[in-house]
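*Target chain*
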Amino acid sequence: MSIRAIDVARTDGGPQWVEAVATPAGVEVWWDEPRPHESGRRCVVRRLPGGTRADALPEGFNARNRLVEYGGRSWRPLPGGGLVFTNWADQRVYRVDGGEPVPLTPQGPSRYGDLYLPPGRDEVWAVRETEDVRDLVAIPLTGGVRVIAKAQRFLMNPRLSPGGGHVSWIGWDHPAMPWDGTELCVAPLGGDGVAGPYEVVAGGPHESVVQAEWRDDGTLYAVTDPTGWWNVHEIGRDGVRGRNLTPMELEFGNAAWKPGMTWMAVAGDRLVLVYGTADRRRLGVLDPATGELREIGGDATHWVSTVSAAGGKAAAVRATPYSPLEVTLADLDGGGLETVSAPRPLPDRALLPEPEAVTIEGVHAHVYPPLGVRGPAPYVIFVHGGPTGSSPLMLDLEVAYFTSRGLGVAQVNYGGSAGYGRAYRERLRHQWGVVDVQDCAKVARGLVERGLADASRIAIRGGSAGGWTTVAALVHSDVFAGGVAQYAITDPESWATETHDFESRYLDGLIGPLPETRQRYAERSPLLHAHRASGPCLMLHGLEDAIVDVGQAERFVAELDRHGKRWALLTFPGEQHGWRREETIVAALEAELAFYGELFGFETPEVAPLKLEGGK
């Protein structure tokens, strides 16, 4: 008995944003969830204090946006039960109050994200992106747009101070990424709703502020990393950093890939925090006055970067190695945890792997052993994207799909991964294509030395930047028998000119600035060294990908073919950077299984055979 691809597709992904709202009847919880069976749309769900759940977003609408292409916070509940949201089809902001959604913003090239409801104002604030220009704007709930502030090239986290006298935001400029260096800005807000000159109160070129929140007494808290770890700092009313409230070698923030992520929520005179490392993320309550941090997260091994507090409760999203991402309501005093999202069908517990967090030669990894295999087994190294990302320790049915068939999986949090402090992230500076490849190879060899993996049957796979590491490992090492690369970067110099604005200078820090380090780009390019591939490669790519153009895959397989290497390329209409549709998730997983069957020499009768081209 094995886990089916359709089982994976129907539990794929999880809630992305949550909101707790205090009402006279109790705390209601809002969240958005993926609907692979509805063409991959994200639907907002409302759960009333009595336990009743209902979709808050009508059919045909998709609460997503393309802010910095990865999307920002896409909805907020309105007082009284209404909703404002961004719609994927036209990128406009809409309001819905039980009837048909009404657009609040005009048609046009602009897109909006990181939605926020400023207290006491009948408007929603957002970051507006028009081509490569971003502004902080106010959108009245009756329609229209007013610019609040123009500042840095990238903006996020707009917040209104108590009393409405000031506005704060986080901004940064090229070539920095938000985990490199950002500025926390505070500006007076005039009677016309427009910000005056701003002051930078935290952050800088080598300090990353990822979230800031005001307390009712005017205290400003910020999640920032001057110590090398994202800790919670009290900024103070005078704009001078006061004190580090969590002076620990733990991360109370993470890489801000999507504007609107939250690791901190103000709950009266306390703070609710998501913190830990990529090996375990916790939920806790901090008393800023005493410094006491009390964990309330139970046995969960991962909490998502979204938390909201109201009425003595916190809404957040948790997972364990045996339960999927679930919306949870936590009692801040009693510590009780209540799952409020609908249960999802899961395979038998006996089919799920028991993961272990390990460190091999200084490299962090999560090992998921294969089911029913004794002695050295075939293994697949899973490489996360980013590369400033990480793989959490939690139930992943995509992993279990393979382990239930006798394939071991090791998720590698290579040097450069978020979740282990700045020094670990900085291991990848100017070393992309070197450190990540070496770290994956170290883990693979370590599994062999421990008697877990068969040295002749180890593959590597990943998506986006993980796809880059996959193809780079194939051409720059001899450890891997083959690879599966999803929406992968295969040539860094051409990608830097093709990709979107948010990541267009990312490679300055990962490889080096152009044109000064062009030789380094050439030396590391998988495309230019395809003739060295140690095994066949399966490439998978969405045809609407605006982050990594499908041409990256097409050119790479053409080079593999030219040099007599084996390959396959599957493309998916209607998909962007990642899979959202049920049929795509199923097709991609089944093709990957067929590839491993061909590579490792075992039968896969339940899926269609995969034809590998090339190999002349």
Observations:
- The chain has a mean pLDDT of 95.
- The two ends are 38 Å apart (CA to CA).
